[in-house]
Amino acid sequence: MSTEDAILDSANRCFTRYGYRRTSMDTIAKEARVAKGTVYLYCEDKADLFTRSLERELRAWVEDLSLLIDDRPAPEILADMGQRDAAFVEQHPLVAELLAGLLDGDHPDLQPRFEELRRIGVRHVVAVLHLGIEQGTFAPELDVEPTARILQEMQLTGALLPHRGDLSTAARRRQQRAALHLVLRGLERR
Questions:
Q1: 110-162: per-residue pLDDT in tens?
Q2: Which among 68, 33, 47 is positioned nearest to 55, based on CA atoms?
């Protein structure tokens, strides 16, 4: 593992565990087992390190989901992506908070960067919606960008269901599948 990867991994763990405000560069350096000055060789400041660690997680996730895009019917691909989305955002709460817009209020100066990251995070959904239109499955007049965002936000909402103590993991997954099915029926060509 490279020094940069160790720093980004450390930053992500620290930001997840302590939050942005309570995470210091000293803490990140200690966690990464490098000198504080070494951390600054790879970033401008804490905000830069925060967004870079988020971006790295997000890009790895999008790359993984992009592998699902093939010649299958688009609704099937979206369903598979939905299952992986749910598992990913449950394991990566900072990315879930980014995509849901929950980080914006605490970091108004980073909002343009967050918006750029959200666009990266929705690319795979946009691609599948276009595929569905090409396949004749989805309505040709579908407004793809906002629809992709809505689908993503639904997945994020589903990922937040663990905070409801009355739902088992199986029940959460069932609700997520039902919501996706409901939306996909609305996307179909009539």
A1: 999 999 998 898 999 999 999 999 999 998 998 999 989 888 887 777 665 55
A2: 47
Torsion angles phi and psi, residue 113, rounded to 5: -70, -40
What top-level class would CATH report for the domain 45-187?
Answer: mainly alpha
pTM above 0.85, yes or no: no
Reply yes or no on domain 1-43 having CATH 1.10.10.10.
no
Closest alpha carbon to 98 in 70, 118, 125: 118
**Domain residue ranges of the chain, discontinuous segments joined by +:** 1-43, 45-187
**DSSP-derived secondary structure for 43-104:** -SSHHHHHHHHHHHHHHHHHHHHHTT-SSS-HHHHHHHHHHHHHHHHHH-HHHHHHHHTTTT
Which tens digits make up the pLDDT trace of 110-123? 999 999 998 898 99
